[in-house]
Amino acid sequence: MADEITPLIAGNWKMNGTSASLAEVARLAGLLAAGERPRCMVVICPPATLLAPLTAIAAPGGIVTGGQDCHPLPNGAHTGDIAAPMLVDAGAQFVILGHSERRADHAESSELVRSKAMAAIGSGLTPIICVGETEAERRAGDAERIVTSQLEASVPDDWGGRGIVVAYEPVWAIGTGLTPTAADIAQMHATIRQRLVDRFGAGGAGVPILYGGSLKPTNARDILAIENVNGGLVGGASLLANDFHAIISAV
Ligand code: 13P
Fold this sequence. Notes:
Blueprint: E1 8-12, H1 22-34, E2 41-45, H2 51-58, E3 64-67, H3 84-89, E4 94-97, H4 100-105, H5 110-122, E5 126-131, H6 135-139, H7 143-154, E6 165-168, H8 182-200, H9 202-205, E7 209-212, H10 220-224, E8 231-234, H11 241-249
Parallel strand pairs: 1-2, 1-8, 2-3, 3-4, 4-5, 5-6, 6-7, 7-8
Helix pairs in contact: 1-2, 1-11, 5-7, 7-8
The structure holds 1,3-dihydroxyacetonephosphate (13P).
């Protein structure tokens, strides 16, 4: 991993977790306190209902929290949506945007993701902007074209002097137990890095690029060692303290 970028391991709980799940976070905080200081920033993105109580439990252990989506506007008549300032109010420092599940389930375009990212940055959140190809797109040899076009359109021009994070999550690797080869991950992350540097110069060189998709304790060490992989976005394995801690320890 690049020396100058602080690695980041982020857990995406998706639509999982109730107040009973807070015990796992307390367990994780205990594991982190008992072991070596983690060599990465640790983020948990729970459902919005758990953000405030989870932040309270996680913060003393140095774990920070994030939302899983936000609306482009700061408030208004948008039933069921959540605004970036609300996430901040609940203790979030990050927000996942443009996850493939939102692109698929809610027909989110990259242009919408960009406007959400601008709202997040404007509220002081660091957006974790997700990109990734489907299995059909990879089979058609289209993976790089799809990912770079998502990246171009989803990442805003102006970061307001703050940072952003990019997550490469091949859709076909999410929740399937499948992962790309190390060579394929290296190639895609190098492409993303080059695009960011071309567009943002030194700023682009400093953007953490996370890998996501079936990242587990068993493969974390190998995947996190790949060039331009600056951490991970973890789904299923972030729900259990032991598994998530093992991935954090692999950094
Ligand atoms: P899994 O780790 O469960 O494959 O999920 C990855 C993901 O979508 C994280 O955002």
